[in-house]
Design brief:
heterodimer, A: about 260 residues, alpha/beta, Rossmann fold, nine-stranded mixed beta sheet, two-stranded antiparallel ribbon, B: alpha+beta, Butyryl-Coa Dehydrogenase, subunit A, domain 1, Butyryl-CoA Dehydrogenase, subunit A, domain 3, 3 domains, four-stranded mixed beta sheet, four-stranded antiparallel beta sheet
């Protein structure tokens, strides 16, 4: 195996969600001034890549589309053990929906040259659309398997991929190259060891703009995004209370009936 | 002046915090119950780089400095103070070897310590006292090619989990009458004595080391013969005091978080008690003490990293932070009201742990003696 690309998205730190504000006009998140972390599921994709690197030796390249102020997040991912990072960053990319994002990432992948695997998190903590990995695969003409819980190699270019579905698992055999998106069941991401933190300071992060990718301006950013956000609403979570009265046995009986009626049991 | 931590230091903090929250948290209940150090954490701590943090890379260490160490110990102590207590003493053993060991001693002892294969400690205190170093009674006599040690050390952190001990013993009289030795726990006549049951820092073991005609090879002398006082003072005042201060700083951080969280959650008179000025003042005092202590601790460590003298600053950081940890943990218990004395709540542990930091690594009074000396020096008449 020569190269594994891990797509990684810096997302707002959930611990600072009380500081999140939406832009009322563009209906997008105001990203300035809030701490960012590696999208949690992307860490599982990175761990999967690092395990393959440990076992078979491969270059692990991080690929991310984000503003430049999120560079420390890429540095953290490098400190987990990735070899280098490419940040795709340009004002022209701002406002990209999932399709435009996938176009930009696909251009980044093409510019990196050949690769054996493109690994992603199953969805991101902020957008949660889970669309980008499939769109990226489609644009690159590669197969995509989502909800991956396990990746094993049968031969150098053939692997067995376990996919989680609603009531069980599906095992696929697949030939590289592939786009896989990982769930949190897949593995336990390693900590950034202190030695790796020091080593990461010397690992390169390249910043590529659209001048490098040469994408038509009407295919990226707000202009290239077919999605139009109608509105953003604050989710109100309320519960409907119901008081059961009577002797304990009667209450238990009523509960059982409610559960049956609601198909809980 | 730049108070901003570097990206490297922020990453070390983040990594240490993630580790502490995920790996140490599940061990706390057992540590509190049994009083045992979770030695099974040594390997993961070594993988992260905690055990070998200040050990030089040529001896399998990470080679980081004291500011990095303070940040890491602080983050561990924020979750549980006993684990970094053991580690800071482990670092003291590494520091003593690094500063005073021969090349052969460094090659033999530092790599296994750095890799978490062994644990170390530094033994100065005796039943007769710890701060009165010259009053110690443990003796070492050279017979042929063997040093023979007799005596007893007490209140030694890591006593029962260490594989070897850096021991200070009398080899003569006066300030040149102390020497330092490396004693393997398997040396003939070396024994561990009683293990103390402490009110706080439960998971860090504290106990006695006993030397009953204990025989160690001549080459296990650490530093010069008669240089033991220097080994003790340098190790205690540099890695010991900054380490102890960092542990207390982590307790303070946790104290602030617990106090503020409870004040915002606990509703009385129809609103969170944080809305009461009396309570907000308590939280403000804790928050201010936390900031003062963090600046003191970071400055002392930074001075060490710059190779500048910092004995006064490390004494200041140690005594002030440990006292502030007790003061603030008591306030946090009071904010919690009746809940503060329940074992389910973290604040009671923070208060118990903070109390133990006061005397560990030199009492607050000894710290003030050091600071007082520096404070008065410019105004004292010469001669």
């Amino acid at each position: 195996m020569d190269r594994i690309i891990v797509c990684l998205k810096p997302v707002p730190d959930p611990q600072a969600w009380d500081r999140l504000r939406m832009d009322p006009v563009t209906k997008t998140l105001i990203r300035e001034g809030i701490p960012f972390i590696i999208n949690p599921l992307d860490k599982h994709a990175l761990e999967a890549a690092l395990q393959l690197k440990d076992a078979y030796g491969a270059e692990v390249v991080l690929l991310s589309m984000a503003p430049e102020f999120t560079l420390p997040v890429l540095r953290q991912a490098l400190a987990m053990g990735a070899d280098r990072a490419v940040l795709l960053s340009d004002r022209l990319f701002a406002g990209s929906d999932t399709l435009a994002t996938a176009r930009i990432l696909a251009a980044g992948v093409r510019r990196l040259g050949t690769c054996d695997l493109i690994l992603c998190g199953n969805f991101t903590l902020d957008g949660s659309t889970a669309q980008v990995p499939s769109q990226l695969a489609e644009l690159l003409g590669l197969p995509n398997i989502m909800h991956v819980t396990r990746l094993e190699f049968l031969e150098p270019q053939r692997c067995l991929v376990t996919q989680k579905i609603e009531h069980g698992y599906v095992k696929w055999t697949a030939t590289l190259p592939l786009v896989l998106s990982f769930t949190k069941e897949a593995n336990r991401p390693r900590y950034a060891s202190f030695l790796q933190i020091l080593a990461a300071e010397k690992r390169p992060i390249a910043v590529w703009s659209n001048a490098d990718l040469q994408l038509p301006p009407d295919s990226i950013g707000h202009a290239g995004s077919p999605t139009r956000m109608a509105d953003v609403l604050l989710h109100q979570k309320t519960r409907q209370g119901q008081r059961l009265t009577g002797r304990p046995e009667d209450i238990a009986q009523q509960l059982v009936e409610i559960f049956h009626r609601r198909r809980v049991i | 002046m730049d108070f901003k931590l570097s990206e490297r230091e922020e990453m070390l903090r983040k990594s240490a915090r993630e580790f502490a929250e995920s790996e140490i948290t599940p061990k706390i209940a057992e540590m509190e119950e049994t009083g045992e150090y979770p030695v099974e954490l040594l390997k993961p701590m070594a993988q992260l780089g905690i055990t070998g943090l200040i050990a030089p890379p040529e001896y399998d260490g990470v080679g980081l400095g004291y500011l990095a160490r303070t940040i890491v110990l602080e983050e561990l102590a924020r979750v549980n103070a006993a684990v970094p207590m053991g580690m800071q003493v482990h670092h003291m053993a590494i520091a003593a070897l690094k500063d005073f060991g021969t090349e052969e001693q460094k090659r033999k002892y530092i790599p296994p310590l750095a890799k978490g294969e062994t644990m170390g400690c530094v033994a100065v205190t005796e039943p007769s006292g710890g701060s009165d170093v010259l009053g110690m009674q443990t003796t070492a006599v050279l017979r042929g090619d063997t040093w023979v040690l007799n005596g007893r050390k007490c209140f030694i952190t890591n006593s029962h989990t260490s594989d070897f001990w850096v021991v200070i013993a009398k080899t003569g009289e006066g300030s040149k009458g102390l020497s330092a030795f490396i004693v393997d726990k398997t040396a003939p006549g070396a024994k561990v004595g009683r293990k103390e049951h402490k009110i706080g820092l439960r998971g860090s073991n504290t106990g006695e080391l006993v030397f009953d005609n204990c025989e160690i090879p001549r080459q296990n002398l650490l530093g010069q013969e008669g240089g033991g006082l220097g080994v003790a003072l340098k190790t205690v005042s540099e890695s010991g005091r900054t380490g102890m201060a960092a542990v207390a700083l982590g307790i303070l951080q946790a104290t602030y978080e617990e106090a503020a969280k409870f004040a915002c959650e606990r509703v009385l008179y129809g609103k969170p008690i944080a809305a009461l000025q009396a309570i907000s003042f308590y939280v403000a005092e804790i928050y201010t003490d936390l900031d003062i202590c963090r600046l003191l601790c970071y400055r002392a460590s930074w001075l060490k990293d710059q190779n500048l003298r910092f004995d006064t600053e490390s004494a200041m950081a140690k005594y002030y932070t440990c006292e502030a940890a007790v003061r603030c943990a008591k306030k946090a218990v009071e904010i919690h009201g009746g809940y503060g004395i329940l074992q389910e709540y973290k604040v009671q542990r923070l208060l118990r742990d903070a109390l133990v930091t006061i005397s560990a690594g030199g009492t607050g009074e000894i710290g003030k003696v050091v600071v007082g000396r520096a404070a008065l020096a410019p105004f004292q008449k010469k001669g």
